[in-house]
Amino acid sequence: MREVPFSFEIQAPDYVPTEYDNHIQRKLSSMRGQYLNQDAYGDMLSRDDVLLYQVYELKRPEIEGELLHGISIVHPGKVGNEYFMTKGHYHTILETAEVYFTLKGQGYMVMETPEGDSAIEELAKGKLLYVPPRWAHRSVNINPEEDLVMFFVYPGNAGHDYGTIETQGFKKLVIEKDGKPDIVDNPRWTQPEGK
Ligand code: F6R
Ligand code: ZN
Description:
mainly beta; 15 strands; about 200 residues; 6-stranded antiparallel β-sheet; globular
């Protein structure tokens, strides 16, 4: 791994970085239990294990002081009436933040804290989103035609905790209603214990 400064390019139209170390491809089968409409999920999966999103990461030491960074690309589509989205996670070290800069597309970042606070911010080309420490985050692509492409950067020691979200999802869901995105309560969600 290089210990000298380096640079690379992230260019339209596909925004795949000219340098990367890991290419993660998340398919429908890895999102079992995440979409509210389980029947629609099962039907879709029986036809095709669709590619939902991709992440290109530059490898850096996972230690304090380093910055992990790369590109995430959420493809357009829906499972039932719920838009394609990332799994979503807390950082294992809760007190670590993340910055997202949207390069292409439109969406929402769905966020919440362990105390049950919830927030949703719009993602659009040219917009920068700051996700403060303690906020779990999931990106959702609401454009039926276009990829949602974002650059992200976060502390090297953050780590990922997927388990909490896998168990109960996020408090809010982004669905399509009458041809438009709508934010609704997740009926599976319960207030964290003791909060
Ligand atoms: C890293 C981060 C992003 C996501 C990416 C995929 O902390 O938030 O790089 O990892 O958007 O989402 P997940 O990791 O939830 O599958
Ligand atoms: Zn993160």
